[in-house]
Structure formats: C-alpha cells, structure tokens
Amino acid sequence: MFIGWDWATETHDVTVMGHTGKRVDRWELAHTEEGFATTLARLRRHGAPADLPVAIETTRGLAVDRLLAAGHPIVVVHPNAFHAMRARWGASKAKTDAGDSMKLADYLRTDGHLLPRLEPTGQATLDLQALTRQRAGHVEARVAATNQLAALLDEHWPGGKAVFANLDSDIAMAFLKRYSTPGSAARLTAGRLGAWCKKQGYSGRKPADVLIARLRSAPAAASRLSETVVAQLVRVQVQLVQSIRATIRTLEKAITEAIEKHPYAPLFATMPRIGNVSLGQVIGEIGPLLERAQTSEQLIAEAGVVPVTRASGKSRTVAFRFAANRRARAALTTFADNSRHGSDWAAKIYNDARARKKRHPHAIRILARAWLRVMWACWRDGTCYDPDIHQTNTKINTSADTPVRG
Fold it and tell me: What predicted TM-score, i.e. pTM, was given to this entire model?
C-alpha cells in the first residue's frame, strides 16, 4: 500500500493506493487530536505502519511528527518537483486536495524507490538544535533592541550614545539606567565616573577623562520631549536589552549542559576555535545531515558548500548552491571562518583560495567543504578530531563511506 497525504493548516486529505494504482481508501481529516487519532487507526487497518510509506510535501510539522511516531516511513516530495510532475495526470494540471493526495500516492507508487526516506533525528540532537536556534533568535532580537536604543540616544541624548559606545556592554547598560538623560549626568566628573566604573568592574579600556570629554563634546539634542519622558524611554529600552541578554545567558548555559551529554560532542570538541555555542550549532545542524548522508559528497551538497555546474551545449556556468540547508550552512561557515585563526591547516586552505582570486565568502565555503570531510571522517570512524590524523597532506580519506557511528 502507498499513502498520499495532502497537508494543510486546518484539514488534511489522505489517499491509500494499492500496488496496481487502484485507490483503496480516501478520507479528509481535521487538524485535531480526534482527526489524527482516527486517521492513524484507520491506516493500521491497511497493514503495519512500517509497511505503509507516506508521501507528503513537507519535512516538519505535527503531521510528520505523528506519522514518524506511529512508525510510518516518510517520503518527502518537494513541492516544485511535485508541481512539475502534474502533467503526468492531465494537461490542465488541475489541483484539489483529494486529487493531490491521490497524485502523491501514485507518485510514491511509481517513483518511491528513487526517493529517500525521512529518518527521525535523535532526541539529543533535536534538543540541542532547538536550543541553538532559540539562542540565534534571541541574538537577533538583542541586536535589534540595541540598535533601537542607539537610535533613541542619537535623537535625544548624543552624549549618552558617545559613552555607551565606549563602555563594556553590561556596564554601558548600567550607566544608561542610572544616567538616562543629559540632566542626570550634568554634574558627572571624571573622578566620579572613574570611581563608578571601577565599582562596576570596568576593564579601563578608555580612561574616565576620555569618556567625560566625549560626553561633553557631543552635540546637544534638539529633542522636544520632556526629560522625564526621555528618561522613561531610555530606561525601558535598557531593561529590554538587559532581559534579552539574560535569556541568552540562560540558553547558553542550557546549551553547555546539553553538549556535555551529547554523544557527538567528543568527536568535534577539539576542533580549533569551536566554543560551546558553535559546537552546539554544528552538532544541531550538521548532525542530522551526517545521520542521513550516504557519502561525504552528499553531506557537502546538503550543507550547501558545493558549487553547482550547469552545462548545455557551448554554455557552462558554475554557480552558488541555493537549494541547501541554510541553517546548517550558516553554522558551518561561521565555525570555518573562526577556525582559520586557530589552525595553520585551515588558514592555508583559506589563503590559497584567496590567492586564486576567490572572494571571502567563496573562500570560506571552500574551507567549510574541507572541514565537512574532516567531520565525516570523524563521524564515520567514531574517532575524535586529531589534526595529525585528519589533516595529513590536507587530504581526507573518503573512499570508505560506510559509517561506524550511526
């Protein structure tokens, strides 16, 4: 039997098709607990879940999670590929929910042996992936909130912005919370500012007299708001930035704890310039690709750091790969960029690429490709990263692509 599942936000349509192409069963279900429970029970009437593969046009969501949990093999069909196949069932390329579920089941019946199955990611990897993605979202929110604070100061208190830009981030927040308007800092002297900064644990990167000079030399704001309102706006924005910083620290602590328990962490923890956050991102985003890749070249392609060649007749182009896991590519290239500052091997690959007139992003992708071969070798053999083993003559043995770890 072959199952076609046309998914949506409120209702889904399911078709069960036999090996001859005849529709055996078909129904519509609501996106509710009752709908899913009834559907999974109805599918079990047609056989064991392991023998009932399901074709669906998404890789995530409640429907995919429930089907995987029930034991059904999931075959993901890309919407663009499915749309290109519509002419097989009629020149009009008509679209209905019932028709799509039938077409998905038929596509699975005829071409399913060519399509990969969706393998569930390990629980530890999923947890780490969720934590690192949540942190990335909070970092974006912190940047936006900090930029909003800088714009607020630029409009209403340029002197405060001058001091804010030269203090350590946490001390700058404390300074603005206490001295949130020009009036509140009017009586501030170099001695008082220096004593306050010392009490806050300031590193002393900029002397107090320099900070005061920049505070006094900044142009006066032409704001028409009252000082009370300006103080309230600044303090509220500072409170927002501080709260986001607190959530980021909480997430980083959780990421560190999750890494300590993850089985892949020892394999990559000794790589150059890979801190806990970067290690968590690499495991969370590259880990699922490692688990389902059959070869190192497949891993490199899915991570999006391989060039794509298009040749036809006399034309030939080599272009950037857009169809890739973008989160995995971002995690990988961030690590690769950092690694060249802590590894002579990585620096040589990057510098050689730059010497061949490659732009910085291209050179980083070349280095990332080399690091993926290292990661594949570590994961395949179940050995921790060792530069003496994995960087011999800058070549990684990928001839044996059967992984030991699984």
Answer: 0.78
